[in-house]
Amino acid sequence: MYELHYSPGTASLLPHMMLRELGVPFQLRLVDREAKEQAAPDYLKLNPNGRIPVLVAAGQALYETAAIALHLADRHPGLAPPVGAADRGDYYKWMVHLANTTQAEFRAWFYSHEFVADPACEASAHAAAGKRLAANFQTIAAQLGDRPWLLASGFSAADLYLLMMVRWGRTLPSPAREIPALGAHAARVLGRPAVQETLAAEGLAAPYI
Fold first, then answer.
1. Structure pTM?
2. What sign does the CA torsion over 176, 181, 184, 188 have?
């Protein structure tokens, strides 16, 4: 039985969607960010970085969103091409790109104050992150094109990851959903029952992106 420490709409959304897509048993453990429970001593024993999510299984805590996603997809077939498959490399590429580029840029977008020594520069850092994100979403859309999913072999964890990024991209001056390829892709992912169950469980109301 897995235990997912989560907060609605945060990076825990990806493993939450994956757990429901995979149909494996799990329990949710809400981390109250307003009460700063992510900085509480008990939580820091699970993740010393004080960030969400954490996945606990058999007494072992795993953190970092992409690491949790890769781990789940390897343990439970259905959301990644098999090892040795033609597009296993593309799967790794998308998972790492979305983690290291897209999600990392959102850190600079949402928490611009962490990236500057002079508070007077915060607005500039925020705007620059927004420009980088806009360009990144355009690049992703160009690679996706008119394909239904990121991988040629079909739906994968990478598509769930992209949905989470497009959802966060609703806060940009030009929301990511307004790029036709990304808006269509998000609609397909949102149409999946497991995704709708996840959004309902987290109390996230439409419009989702």
1. 0.96
2. negative
- 185 vs 156: CA distance, rounded Å: 12
pLDDT tens string 160-199:
999 999 999 999 999 999 999 999 999 999 999 999 999 9
Tokens 């420490």, located at residue = 5
Record the tokens describing residue 202, joined without a space.
């987290």
Task: Note the pLDDT tens digit of each residue in 130-164.
Answer: 999 999 999 999 999 999 999 999 999 999 999 99
Buried b (16+ CB within 10 A) or exposed e, 150-168: bbeeebbbbbbbbbbbbbb
Distance, CA of 124 to CA of 1 (rounded, Å)? 45
Show the 3-state SS of 2-35. EEEEECCCCCCHHHHHHHHHHCCCEEEEECCCCC
Give me the domains of the chain, ranges plus CATH numbers. 2-79 (3.40.30.10), 88-192 (1.20.1050.10)
Instruction: For residue 127, give both structure tokens.
Output: 């705007």
* CA distances to 28, 141, 162, 184, 197 from 187, in Å: 26, 14, 12, 5, 15
Structure tokens at 199: 């959004």
Site of tokens 């439409």: 206
Amino acid at site 129: A
Q: Which residue has the tokens 């307004």?
A: 178
CB contact burial 107-121 (16+ within 10 A = b; e otherwise):
ebbeebeeeeeeeee
Say if CB 177 and CB 165 are below 8 A apart: no
Q: Which helix (H) or strand (E) holds 56?
A: strand 54-57
